[in-house]
Amino acid sequence: MVVSASDGSVVLWAGDTRVERMSGPLERTVALVTGAAQGIGLGIARALALASYKVVLADIEQELVERAAAALRAEGCQAVGESLDVTRADHWGRVVEQLDSRWGALDLLVNCAGISPRGTVESTDETLWEQTLGVNLKGAWLGIKAALPGLRSRQGTIVNIGSTRATRPMPGLFSYVVSKAGLWGLTQQVAVEYLAEGITCNMIAPGWVDTPNERRLQARYGRPDFPEGIRNLTTPEEVGAAVVYLASPHARKINGVILYLDAGLHIADDAGMVHLSDRSRPPFAQRLENTEATVVSGTRPSHP
After folding, report:
1. Which is nearest to 229 in space by CA: 210, 254, 251, 201?
2. More confident residue, 26 or 236
């Protein structure tokens, strides 16, 4: 919900979260969000649109992203859907050029497009490795490179959507973890290189998010009940509210940081949230059983 205050500011309510976007000379107006056809990307695009941004929703799923943009327009927002393969520089050039022609220079780039395949060091083949790093890491670099002229003219903002796994790896997510760790390095490097030009670059690291793609992936790997039993799930709307904040004047001095949006997952990991098919019970359940057994017997619990 959007409320206009008497001082001309715009107040965004994302669920119970209040995010204010101030009016004035630094007001941002044009945003591009990748991976915006559904899930986290759509949640971000919707939050920005409700905060009065003109939003380009970009996704490789053209029909789906066009429907998403049409739904936002039906709510009175300014939004357009564009087909984009983030791994192709020519696609980026086309989308940015069309954005410039339609609305002028870009204020905010959100790199959200990503995939999260399962696999270990040994089971991951070169095709999966290249695909994962292509979408999750190369795509963000190509997007930043294409958007820099507009971002430079507007002293704009870049927000990369990473993961808690960028700094808290776990078994079975080899190429995904490496790609998100690389995205964190990219975020810091871009922040350093364009510090003097007033461009900020930060990364949001969500925990587990309930999205259509995550449900399909979890079901494929043995968790058809996902997200049943998972506590403190992050929502796409919460990620959207965080993006609105990082793009606001309030956050202009926040640069080169990782914002964990995971209810503490990065400091108190629960590896049972991902099903590992080679284990009869998830690790967190084994730890709980071990703790309960030792308490009953009066011995001190051991921790792996």
Report:
1. 210
2. 236
Say how many C-beta atoms besides its own lie within 10 A of residue 126's C-beta: 7
Strands (E), 182-277: 200-206, 258-261
For the cut 60, the answer to whether the pLDDT of residue 243 exceeds it is yes
Instruction: Tell me how far the alpha carbon of residue 81 is from its chain's centroid.
Output: 18
Residue listed under structure tokens 């003219």 = 153
Question: Please, which residues have CB within 8 angstroms of residue 275's CB and are 6 or more apart in sequence?
Answer: 218, 221, 222, 223, 282
To the query of whether residue 176 is one of the catalytic residues in this protein, the response is yes
Angle between helices 174-193 and 126-133 (to 10 degrees): 30
pTM: 0.81
Q: Could you say which of 3.40.50.720, 3.90.79.10, 3.40.640.10, 3.30.930.30 is the CATH number of the domain covering 2-273? A: 3.40.50.720
Cα separation of 133 and 280, whole Å? 31
217: CB partners within 8 A, 6+ apart: 116, 118
- Residue 232 — very low, low, confident or very high, per pLDDT cuts 50/70/90? confident
- The 8-class DSSP code of residue 299 comes to P
Catalytic residue among 176, 194, 245, 260: 176
3-state DSSP assignment of residue 222 = coil
Whole-angstrom distance, CA of residue 40 vs CA of residue 204:
12
pLDDT of residue 102: 96
- Are 72 and 79 a contacting pair, CB within 8 Å? yes
